[in-house]
Design goal:
With 354 residues, the protein is of the alpha/beta class. The protein folds into two domains: 130 residues, Rossmann fold, CATH 3.40.50.2300; 141 residues, Response regulator (Rossmann fold), CATH 3.40.50.2300. Helix content is 34%, strand content 20%. It has a seven-stranded mixed β-sheet, with helices on both faces. Strands 10-9-11-12-13-15 form a six-stranded mixed β-sheet, with helices on both faces. The protein has a two-stranded antiparallel sheet with strand order 2-3. The protein starts with a strand and ends in a 6-residue tail after the last helix. The chain binds beta-D-galactofuranose (GZL). The site of beta-D-galactofuranose has 14 residues, from α1 and β12. The site of beta-D-galactofuranose (GZL) has 14 residues, from α1 and β12.
Length: 354
Amino acid sequence: MKMFSKLTSLAVALTMTLSLAACGGAAKPAETAKPAEEKKAEAAAPAEQKKEDKAGKKIVVGFAQIGAESEWRTANTKSIKEACEKAGFELKFSDAQQKQENQIKAIRSFIAQKVDYIALAPVVETGWDTVLKEVADAKIPLILVDRSVKTSDGKDDLWVTRVGENFYQEGVDLATWVKTNEEKLGFKDKAAVNVYQLEGTVGSGAAVDRGKAWADTMKDSKFKTVKSQTGDFTRAKGQEVMESWLKSDKGKIDLVYAHNDDMALGAISAIEAAGLKPGVDIKIVSVDGVKGAFEAMIAGKLNCVAECSPLTGPKLVETINDLAAGKQVPKLTYAKEGVFPADKAAEVLPSRQY
Ligand code: GZL
């Protein structure tokens, strides 16, 4: 199955149809995707695209990765390393331990090493203007992978393209599934459902968009977000926050919406330690679709997962090869993603690649 869509397309997932689009400009919460004109990337590189190195030297890519905070991130790193290896690129890799200042240091090091391309998975959306201008001044094409950047002037000319995931759509699809399946979840006769939201890293595009998507979709519904706190996309912090909620609000928590599976798995541990049944006494839905989440759904501890594909390595390599060959690339491409309810998990698990 083609993993990425450059044009608006309809992908039928297990429970709903998603629509995908290549859109111009930086990522913004997607309205209902309409056929999108492919916006040609105004490459931040010099007018002539980088040719493959004349001496046949390997293409050198500097990749500023966020860290290793989740199963998703580990799978994303593996996908990019393997794809670059297979393509014969020299990959200079940096793990920033989820700190923006480390990513900025890595980018400056890549500039000093005169790499051919820089790939950045930005831990947060803002604070990049200065260093991305330094990249443009060095005439090194910049490719955003995964998360999004918001510049102070709102422009998107400091990067050639973004190979990412549609976080807003993931949130809409998950919230829509919850509303559509309120009876299956045992919420039919409840006038109000108390939702506790485990947010991702504060200021990250993934957390901003998944939070806005849920709020927009649940507006005027019985699903009321009672508390919302960041677990920074990690299992440990997800467990910690859930423990604190169980201390203060045990018996009031109907549904946990976790911005990623790792925080959901941490919450599951906390709920079990409190003598309650996750997925039964407290329903849980999350985003990513890592193996651990499928196993939790099969065990009846997690109720539904919206996929966010980390397998962006091949698309990154394809994009770099296109740029090296002087081709135009779309300004934004999204991975194709689905929604997986617990009753489909066992059938789907064997086909999962991460
Ligand atoms: C989403 C990605 C998020 C994942 C988390 O594309 O940025 O970061 O949802 C990961 O698991 O930590």
